[in-house]
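Team,

Forwarding the record for the chain on the shared tracking sheet. I've put the sequence and predicted structure together so nobody has to dig through attachments.
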Amino acid sequence: MKKDKTRSDKLQVTEFFLFVTVALQLVTLSACGFSPMYGTMGQNMVEAEDQLAQVEIGNIPDREGQYLRNLLIDRFYRQGRPADAQYVLQVSDLSESKTELDITKTADATRAQLRISLQMRLIDKAQQTVVLERPLHAITSYNILPSEFATRVTEQNARESALNELARQIEQRLSLYFTK
């Protein structure tokens, strides 16, 4: 009975120290200058979402480029396209490379890695200057299956996943630019 009481006491002390540690971390986090990227930043600050709606998305060549552009349109224009955008987003041609991984004894690959790279540029229409330029890339992998059709389907799924990641990265980079 006495052992149970000392265990209970030790558990309470541990819980207390854990609570104090978490509370101190929360207090220091609020003092670090952290501010939300999305949402209201103050009365004079324009929200990142409003700024994204003022970005005209240029055409991106090829089928994958069209897919990426449609993803960006869905992310940027929540209330419709802007009549007169302040910025133009230019995305270079997508560069895709495949690497075969996990080679078997018979020299067959059972896994592949897909890397898609691009260069994004944000141009201020009024000044005709590049205000933000970044190289971006996304890497995904997929299984190489005995069925050629199944392999093509998994490869296409991996490609779409990489394009979704690139759209997220573009949105994030632009949001960070607009909030600074």
